[in-house]
Amino acid sequence: MQKIKRLAVLTSGGDAPGMNAAIRAVVRTAIDEGIDVFGIYGGYEGLIHGEVMPLSRRSVSNIIQKGGTFLKTSRSEAFRHKAGRKRGAEVLKEWNINDLVVIGGDGSFHGAHKLYEEFKVNVIGIPGTIDNDIWGTDLTVGYDTAVHTALSSIDKIRDTAASHDRIFLVEVMGRHAGFIALQVGICGGAEEILVPEKETTLGHLGKMIKTWSKSGKTSSLMVVAEGHKLGSANEIAYKLKNNFNVDCHVCVLGHTQRGGSPTATDRLLASRLGYHAVHALLNGKTDMMVGWSNNHITHTPLIETWEKKKDLDAELLKIYRILSS
Ligand code: F6P
Predict the structure, then answer these.
(1) Model's pTM, two decimal places?
(2) Whose CA is nearest to atom 16 of ligand 1?
(3) What pLDDT does 169 receive?
(4) Are 159 and 215 in a shared domain?
(5) For the segment 189-227, what is each residue's pLDDT rounded down to a tens digit?
(6) In 3D, which of 301, 310, 309 has the Cα closest to residue 112?
(7) Among candidates 284, 266, 292, which has minimal Cα distance to 22?
(8) What is the pLDDT of residue 196?
(9) Residue 109 to residue 113: CA distance in whole angstroms
(10) What is the dihedral angle through the alpha carbons of 43, 44, 46, 49, rounded to the nearest 10 degrees?
(11) Of all protein residues, whose CA lies closest to atom 10 belonging to ligand 1?
């Protein structure tokens, strides 16, 4: 066991429901181990500006059920550069802190890895992003809630689509990853699911729309991940109108997917990972992410979390058309 006297925690990148639950777990586990805990407000940007505050057990009362992150977050441009990271490391040193838990996605993990590599700050990452696109963990904190939020909107859209005999294109988040699109598409009974990982042509969409109407469908729903090569849902609707004279209604779910009270699955995951992040540091682990795979806690070198690619479930990609036919 390492002797750690002081530890800091921050949230970085896009917020995700469950981040508060993760902070709470880190703070209370550390205090239980006799460690003084500090919260860094505003992610790496806040670190650079010295936004460090002591946290107590009571600082994290009544937040497990709250969306967002009470520590606030940022996408820091300055921290992408060594000068920014140097300033961040200096701030930590001024506070006599050499151990840091970073809750965020791959961009945040890049920053954490550099902080360790260049300035020997011990870092442990907790995967917190609605995108679920992190290698080394089956789930990221926030993904399950985002899926539930998107799905409840899709169910509502289905009602109105069916009443008016309409085709809907629903755009969900995921610039580079189709995890949300695939899961809500399957669970919402979507006729078509467009994910960035898989190419689809406009011609194929036109053909599918004809098939649906021939098979007696009076309404249908396509789920589009925002990063699809064919364009945004609005652009795809425009192209379908121009090329096939097909009218599609569009609903962009946008940032609604990032908010809201975390599901039980996300609270549980965040609580587990928060606890294990502190214990990883105590056990001398650094430059790693704690994750959850096959019902076990995992420790993955940060570099692998973005260098290795987590694939979409190939079977789901294959079967959704059969199930919605
Ligand atoms: O990484 C999470 C995410 O919500 C992505 O799905 C989305 O593409 C992006 O963040 C949006 O980021 P921002 O809120 O900074 O525009």
Answers:
(1) 0.97
(2) 14
(3) 98
(4) yes
(5) 999 999 999 999 999 999 999 999 999 999 999 999 998
(6) 301
(7) 266
(8) 96
(9) 6
(10) 180
(11) 14
Same domain for 193 and 165: yes
Asked if residue 267 and residue 188 are part of one domain, the reply reads: no
Ligand 1 atom at minimum distance from 174 CA:
6
Average pLDDT over residues 230-256: 98
Q: Give the domain extent around 12.
A: 6-142+262-307
pLDDT in tens, 172-192: 999 899 999 999 999 999 999
Model confidence at 2: pLDDT above 90: no
Residues 17 and 91 in one domain: yes
In angstroms, what is the span from residue 13 Cα to ligand 1's centroid? 8
- C-alpha 161, offset from chain centre: 29
Q: Tell me, what's the pLDDT at 61?
A: 98
Candidates 173, 195, 253, 257: which one to mutate for ligand 1, based on the most atoms within 8 Å of Cβ?
A: 173
Q: Does 73 fall in a domain?
A: yes
104 pLDDT higher than 90:
yes
CATH classification at residue 242? 3.40.50.460
Burial profile 110-119: b = 16 or more Cβ within 10 angstroms, e = fewer? bbbbbbbeeb
The rounded distance, in Å, linking the Cα atoms of 119 and 85 is 8
Instruction: Return the amino acid letter for 297.
Output: I
Same domain, yes or no, for 39 and 130? yes
Please check whether residue 141 is in contact with residue 273, taking contact to mean a CB–CB distance below 8 angstroms: yes
Minimum CA distance residue for ligand 1 atom 11:
14
Element (H, E) at 292: strand 288-293
Q: Which residue has the tokens 């036109």?
A: 206
